[in-house]
Amino acid sequence: MKRRVFLCLLFCGVLTISGCTMSNQANSEPPKVDVSINGQPISVIGAQSEESASAANLTNFVELVKNKNIEELPYVDLGDSIELVFDFMPEKDELVVYDRLLRKTGADKYAKDTMGAINISLVEKKGMLKIISNPAAMLSSHSEDYEKGKSIRGFSFSVKSEGKNYIYAFAIRTDAKGKVLPHFQFQGLHL
User: Fold this and answer.
1) Whole-angstrom distance, CA of residue 47 vs CA of residue 175
2) In terms of C-beta density within 10 A (0-12 exposed, 13-18 middle, 19 or more buried), how is residue 158 classed?
3) Domain containing 148: what range?
4) Comparing C-alpha atoms, which of 137, 130, 129 is closest to residue 175?
5) How distant, in Å, are the alpha carbons of 26, 43, 114, 115, 151 from that of 102?
6) Is 175 within the bounds of a domain?
7) pLDDT in the model for residue 25
8) Fewest 10 Å CB contacts: which of 33, 66, 81, 103?
9) What is the total count of domains within the chain?
């Protein structure tokens, strides 16, 4: 009798522990991606998602920008590179990073078709994203948008790891003016 009670309690304990473990895995954080400029970290938000980075939910950008003065966002000079370091091995060694201009609220500044796409290669779980001028930044009729550090940019990318899709987003501020390099494209229009 004691043995039956002991086995029953042991079985219930194993079920409880495995249920908690499975629940924690389902609600676990996405794999870590460190984003930085010259060794200074940049806040990044990640989540498991079925949507692509080009269709990224603006909630990520609103979350990154809300309750902040524009000066609190990291400033990146045009021509500088942002480093992406993955704590896991993405399934592909190339990444498409989507670049959109944001309002101070984190919402898109312009229509979705002005979003740019930049291809970067990953080597040993690392990638470098060179920040160039977004041509859509020149669409503004507000002169203050052309002042140093007044262009808010949101970047998003998605990666697959172990069969799951993860989407990441980060925001910076930079300048509107600069040289447009050949690898920048608007949704199908290559510049």
Assistant:
1) 29
2) buried
3) 31-190
4) 137
5) 32, 16, 11, 10, 8
6) yes
7) 41
8) 66
9) 1
